[in-house]
TrEMBL record:
Keywords: Receptor
Protein name: Aerotaxis receptor
Superkingdom field: Bacteria
Protein's UniProt keywords contain Nucleotide-binding: no
UniProt-listed SUPFAM superfamilies: PYP-like sensor domain (PAS domain)
Family matches, as InterPro entries: PAS, PAS-like_dom_sf, PAS_fold_3
PAS fold-3 domain mapped to chain residues: 37-105
One Pfam family named in its UniProt record: PAS_3
Organism expressing this protein natively: Rhodobacter viridis
Length: 416
């Protein structure tokens, strides 16, 4: 039985629609509307003659940041899917919020939109409004506004806005299932769990880098201490120089997978986010395709063509998700190996640290700060090894979960 829409929490000026309803629209590469469904037409309040052939920005609300559209068009223009919370404007001045799943298609772009209701939506509604207000009050450039939105995603623990929106899509699908009284979807639950694990990897990555950067100052402190304690070339000086040389080697290895453009951690996150977003998109596209079987005729829209396009996109997102998941698994396994290698290199630093502790004990009557410097090494070494072990464990868990998911998806493909 179809559940009746719940309009009990509709805000003043908000256009109501049900959780069971899906918006659909397709545009050309310039954003001109080529097709849409009745939900889109009804909620927007425009007639078909006003919508078809009009730019999609006809429903753009001024409270949606221009920076968000910069992020969206950058992604779609480069052939990547994207998701976003969007506040739209109806013809009569009312508004409605959607979570939009947007994908490139031959000759343009396609969007399927659902009604958002997760706790994250409440947070994002306020954040988007604040950024839009800043744009107006401070005349913020869209590129700068987009940078602020990406920073917001990073503050939530995600390496990119795409990763953040993949997580959001999982939450919104789960919240929608609950609103509609549906049983929890195992694929959606796994999507959320894997995204949370990726969030923890990103968090550990940043903490690891900060700890190692702080560690770089300690060999200099040791040399300063040595200059006060012993002649040039003494044992403490040699220890500090050996430590500096060894730590530089580790630093280069570390930066190759936690820092800089296209680092290994980011590659894991980017491919996994792409896979997880495509998996969520596939579910929405499948439902949208089923709804189209009951669509009423609309002059200027060929439903057979739209259904065929959706079916092809449904199939391609399934294939592309599996490919991205496979790349994410390979990157996660490489990340685990790289973390293990740096963990082994840290054992060499531990040996030098122990020599420093021994020398500190031998010179205990005139240590001159050497003891406190070694104490700092103890703290940083413990923290760094803990972070590396956490990244190793999480990346192994992610690779295992993704491999299991891939096998299940392959089984689903055979059964289709």
């Amino acid at each position: 039985m179809t559940q009746l829409p719940d309009f009990s929490h509709v805000l003043e000026g908000e256009v109501p629609f049900g959780f069971d309803e899906l918006f659909y629209s397709r545009t050309d590469t310039r954003g001109v509307i080529l097709a849409g469904n009745e939900v889109f037409r009804r909620v927007s309040g425009f007639s078909w003659s006003e919508l078809l052939g009009a730019p999609h920005k006809i429903v753009r609300h001024p409270d949606t940041p221009r920076g968000l559209f910069r992020i969206i068009w950058d992604a779609l223009g480069n052939g990547h899917p994207m998701g976003a919370y969007v506040k739209n404007r109806a013809r009569d001045g009312g508004f409605y919020w959607v979570f939009a799943v947007m994908l490139p298609v031959p000759g343009g772009f396609l969007s399927v939109r659902i009604k958002p209701s997760s706790p994250l939506f409440e947070k994002m509604r306020g954040s988007c409004g604040a950024i839009a207000a800043e744009e107006k009050a401070q005349r913020v450039d869209p590129e700068e506004s987009a940078a602020r939105m990406r920073t917001m995603a990073q503050s939530e623990g995600f390496s990119s806005y795409t990763s953040f929106m993949a997580y959001a899509l999982g939450l919104e699908l789960a919240a929608r299932d609950a609103k509609l009284g549906r049983p929890a979807d195992p694929r959606t639950e796994r999507l959320i769990d894997m995204n949370r694990a990726l969030e923890r990897v990103t968090e550990e990555q940043m903490k690891l880098l900060r700890s190692f950067e702080a560690l770089q100052s300690i060999p200099n402190n040791m040399r300063i201490v040595a200059s006060r304690m012993e002649p040039s070339g003494g044992p403490v000086s040699a220890i500090s120089e050996n430590y500096r040389a060894s730590s530089l080697v580790i630093s280069e290895r570390l930066r190759s997978f936690v820092a800089g453009r296209d680092n290994l951690c980011d590659r894991v996150s980017r491919q996994a986010a792409r896979a997880l977003f495509l998996i969520g998109s596939n579910r929405v596209l499948s439902e949208m395709n089923a709804v189209f079987a009951e669509a009423d005729p609309v002059p200027g829209i060929d439903w057979g063509e739209e259904r065929l396009l959706l079916r092809r996109l449904e199939d391609s997102t399934h294939v592309d998700a599996s490919k991205a998941m496979g790349r994410a698994v390979a990157n996660a396994e490489e990340l685990s190996r790289a973390s293990a290698e740096i963990r082994r290199l840290m054992l060499g630093l531990d040996t030098i640290r122990v020599l420093g502790r021994v020398e500190c004990g031998r010179m205990r009557d005139a240590s001159g700060g050497l003891s406190s410097t070694i104490d700092q090494l103890d703290v940083f070494h413990t923290d760094i090894k803990s972070r590396l072990e956490s990244i190793m464990r999480l990346s192994e868990d992610i690779a295992t979960a993704m491999n299991r998911f891939l096998r299940e998806e392959q089984g689903r493909s055979v059964a289709r």
